[in-house]
């Protein structure tokens, strides 16, 4: 008999910096989440440089990673 492993679709994605939603793509969904977290924010997923504020530095990081995570 063959053995099959069940895999959740989200397990197939490769995560990368900027991929806040964890879907394997840095896109408008992540941009909207970043905008929603804008300002002071301790421990936010959109705070890529861990300085406790979501700001232009984080926005530029997201834009630089735009597209499919590899």
Task: Please state the average pLDDT score.
Answer: 87
Low-confidence stretches: none
Into which percentage range does the β-strand content fall? 5-15%
What string gives the helices and strands in order? EHEEHE
Largest sheet, in brief, is: 2 strands, antiparallel
Strands in their spatial order, largest beta sheet: 1-4
Give the structural class: alpha+beta
Question: Terminal Cα separation, in Å?
Answer: 35 Å
Instruction: Count the beta strands.
Output: 4
Number of helices: 2
Query: What percent of the residues sit in helical stretches (DSSP H or I)?
Result: 25-40%
- The 3D shape can be described as elongated
What is Rg?
A: 15 Å
What are the key terms here?
single chain, 70 residues, alpha+beta, two-stranded antiparallel ribbon, 4 strands, 26% helix
Write the layout of secondary structure elements.
Layout: E1 25-26, H1 28-36, E2 39-40, E3 53-54, H2 56-64, E4 67-68
Helix pairs in contact: 1-2
Structure at a glance:
The protein is of the alpha+beta class and 70 residues long. It has helices at 28-36, 56-64; strands spanning 25-26, 39-40, 53-54, 67-68.
Report what the structure shows.
The protein is of the alpha+beta class and 70 residues long. Helix content is 26%, strand content 11%. It has helices at 28-36, 56-64; strands at 25-26, 39-40, 53-54, 67-68. Strands 1-4 form a two-stranded antiparallel sheet. The chain has a two-stranded antiparallel sheet with strand order 2-3. The longest helix is centred in the middle third of the chain and has 9 residues, at 28-36. The relative contact order is 0.22. The mean pLDDT is 87.
